[in-house]
Design goal:
Elements lengths: L22 H4 E5 L3 H11 L4 E6 L11 H4 L2 E4 L5 H6 L7 E4 L4 H14 L4 E5 L3 H11 L2 E4 L6 H7 L5 E7 L2 E9 L19 E7 L23 E6 L11 H17 L3 H16 L2 H27 L5 H12 L3 H5 L10 H37 L10 E4 L3 H12 L4 E5 L13 E3 L2 H4 L10 E4 L4 H14 L4 E6 L2 H10 L3 E5 H13 L3 E8 L2 E9 L11 H8 L2 E6 L6 E2 L12 E6 L1 H9 L8 E7 L2 H15 L3 H8 L4 E2 L6 H13 L2 E6 L1
Parallel strand pairs: 1-2, 1-4, 2-3, 4-5, 5-6, 11-12, 11-14, 12-13, 14-15, 15-16
Antiparallel strand pairs: 7-8, 8-10, 9-10, 17-18, 18-21, 19-20, 19-21, 22-23, 22-24
């Protein structure tokens, strides 16, 4: 979970600047050198910064390579003590990452750090959501993460279908990341890649069947034609969820009108097929058949008796005849005929039919009451009895700690059948909703139908136990998906080479990247993994002096190799999948997908220089010249004066170099405006 945080500091940093002159810019302090703390050291060092550390004892063993050689200072002591923090140069640090396993200690260190340095950024490991919110408001420049929540989506996605590699939520809408291998039958074949992009979909990586997907975004040619066996990664917002108003009432209205429209468009053949479909559905279940037969009988009697009573009593209205029949069906024969002297012209058979109607009504009401009672009792027993263990196509979660509970909650959103195994009885919101097997974990594996399971997610705190569980599962079911939690990245990497059919996720390494990003002032909203690369969903609030200020989104995307996915100019409404033509200004909000290297490039202002130019050869008319200049201003981001001068002196080369994707889009757009252009290096 995340607390609200202020805008990040200015990132206008010169990486060659003497660090002794700017200690507050490039010095960081880590409190706690457990697994998470050690991985935070390694991640921060990728930015070329100075890292100091404090721990009460020296770590018994290093989970990362050359831990102490990466540290500028290591202080043994209690970080809650002001003199220990002072020795670790807290007054000169830009951020302090507090990642011990004791939340109370973490909060105490945060308070002590704020007293010694009023400007330092506090990045705290804590699961106290309400307390973190209050501390964020009081202390300022404070962010807290629950380290067990961040990697949960990675575990959940790894156990789902192969195509989905990640998901997250923005503005209460789900964004999914899909990895697909194109087959011959798909309508995407024989189309250029750029045609796949629209308001709800954006391609972020592509490789043909002879190459591998790049770890950087946009490393492909937008004009390349998609062929069979090509690989594509794209993010997508489901079209239904993309509707501007998607609350429950409007969703129900949308579904109702869509169904009504579809029904009105049915032809006689489709109506016949629909009737057959529902008739077969009714015949599948004896209770459905009984309810349908009873309802049809009641409807027949209601219509026939209403018409007969109306015919034999012309002075009665059709409504009175209808209500009289309804009274008979509800057992009111005596109310109609009891104590009344019958007229001579009242047929005896109509009176007998009324009696039959009353008897049928009484039987039907009794039958309906019995069915309702049976359903209520079965529902009660369903909630009180233990959830049955699925027999096939289910996911087994081994370990129901914080990570396991988060994973189970996420998988339930995808309607995935689950069963959990825990060594002890666990009380949480998720346990009443899924079957739970307790006791010895290895022996419990015999009870969860591993041979027909879809996957195993082993997330206990014992990585050896997780590995043993995975190997047992694989021996029983070679097609099972294995997702294993580890605490050391080197261990994960070695296992991945030996067991390529498994997904090994080092929670400390994954979470460390979020902590490192937050230490530089970024708001890390979520994270997921694409293959072995962690991708961070990162929020920027643009300030004066920012490396992003004044750039158009095309320059940010292709220059820093990140993926802009949401833009907002407060207080205006947010735009998902924003256009590349938007220029950022102070006060704007931008959310991007970025690897840790992408964050590093933005932090240091290391933007890739554009190298492509556009030769504009001719325009068919004055209108084409006018429209072409407008397109150049929007896509290339140059001044209107430059664009007009170029278009009035054709042929000519656009003086501003562009990125390849940007230049290709400009050429395509100019073509639509009847302007002939081409790319040159």
């Amino acid at each position: 979970m995340f607390s609200s945080i202020p805008n990040r500091q200015s990132n206008n940093i010169n990486p060659t600047t003497n660090t002794s002159l700017q200690p507050s810019i490039d010095r960081f302090l880590i409190c706690g050198l457990g697994s998470l703390g050690q991985h935070c050291v390694t991640t921060l060092k990728q930015f070329g910064v100075i890292v100091n550390a404090i721990d009460v004892i020296q770590p018994k063993y290093s989970q990362v390579s050359d831990l102490f050689s990466q540290l500028n200072k290591f202080i043994i002591g209690d970080a809650r003590e002001p003199n220990i923090l002072t020795q670790a140069e807290v007054q000169q640090c830009r951020s302090i990452l507090i990642v011990t396993s004791d939340e109370k200690v973490n909060l105490a260190i945060a308070l002590a750090g704020r007293l010694l340095n009023s400007q330092i950024r506090l990045v705290v490991r804590s699961a106290k959501e309400n307390l973190n919110q209050l501390l964020g408001e009081q202390l300022g420049n404070y962010v807290a993460f629950e380290s067990t929540q961040l990697p949960a989506p990675a575990f959940a996605v790894a156990a789902l279908e192969e195509e989905m590699v990640g998901f997250f939520y923005l503005e209460k809408q789900q964004i999914t990341i899909i990895k697909r291998q194109i087959n011959l039958a798909e309508n995407w074949c024989n189309r250029p890649i750029y045609q796949l992009n629209n308001r709800h979909r954006k391609v972020i990586s592509y490789a043909n069947n002879e190459t591998e997907l790049s770890s950087d975004f946009y490393e492909w040619d937008t004009e390349e034609i998609i062929q069979t066996n090509d690989k594509i990664i794209y993010l997508e917002q489901p079209i239904f969820l993309a509707r501007k108003h998607s609350d429950n009432l409007q969703i129900k209205q949308f579904i109702f009108w869509e169904r009504l429209r579809s029904f009105l468009q049915l032809n006689p053949r489709k109506i016949k097929n629909l009737i057959i479909k529902y008739w077969n559905w009714i015949q599948e279940n004896p209770i459905r058949n009984l309810v349908f037969s009873s309802g049809l009988t009641l409807l027949t009697l209601l219509v026939s008796d209403t018409l007969l009573l109306w015919y034999y009593y012309p002075e009665a209205t059709l409504r009175e005849a209808f209500y009289g029949t309804a009274v008979l069906l509800l057992g009111g024969f005596g109310d109609i005929f009891g104590g009344i002297k019958l007229e001579e012209d009242f047929p005896w058979w109509l009176q007998f039919l009324s009696l039959i109607t009353t008897l049928v009504g009484i039987i039907s009401v009794a039958l309906l009451n019995g069915l309702i009672t049976e359903r209520l009792l079965s529902t009660k027993f369903k909630f009180t009895r233990r959830n049955p263990i699925p027999t096939q196509n289910h996911v087994v979660i081994v370990g129901l700690g914080r990570v396991g509970q988060q994973v189970a909650t996420l998988l339930q959103r995808f309607k995935q059948k689950l069963v959990a195994i825990s060594s002890t009885v666990t009380e949480s919101d998720i346990t009443p909703k899924i079957p739970l097997v307790t006791g010895n974990i290895i022996k419990s594996l015999e009870k969860v139908n591993l041979a027909t399971a879809k996957g195993i997610i082993a997330v206990t705190n014992d990585e050896m136990l997780n590995l043993e569980v995975a190997l047992i599962g694989y021996s029983l079911n070679p097609n099972i998906r294995l997702v294993i939690r580890t605490s050391e990245q080197r261990f994960s990497n070695n296992l991945a080479k030996l067991l390529p059919y498994s997904a090994f996720i080092c929670t400390s390494a994954v979470v460390a990247e979020a902590f490192a990003g937050a230490a530089f002032g970024e708001n890390i909203l979520s994270l997921f993994k694409i293959d072995h690369q962690t991708v961070l969903v990162t929020e920027y609030n643009i300030e004066t002096g920012d490396t992003l200020n004044g750039l158009i989104l095309a320059e940010i995307a292709y220059g820093y190799r990140v993926v802009p996915i949401l833009y907002q100019k407060p207080p205006n409404e947010s735009k998902l999948m924003p256009s590349d033509d938007i220029r950022l200004a102070v006060g704007d909000r931008l959310i991007v997908l970025a690897t840790i290297n992408g964050l590093k490039r933005i932090e240091n202002g290391e933007i890739k220089e554009p190298t492509w130019q556009v030769m504009i050869e001719s325009a068919t008319s004055e209108y084409a010249i006018f429209q072409g200049a407008n397109e150049i201003v929007g896509i290339a981001g140059c001044s209107m004066l430059t664009a007009r001068e170029l278009m009035n002196n054709l042929p000519g080369i656009l003086p501003k170099p562009l990125y390849k994707h940007q230049a290709q889009r400009l050429v395509r757009t100019l073509k639509k405006a009847l302007v002939k252009a081409r790319l040159i290096m």
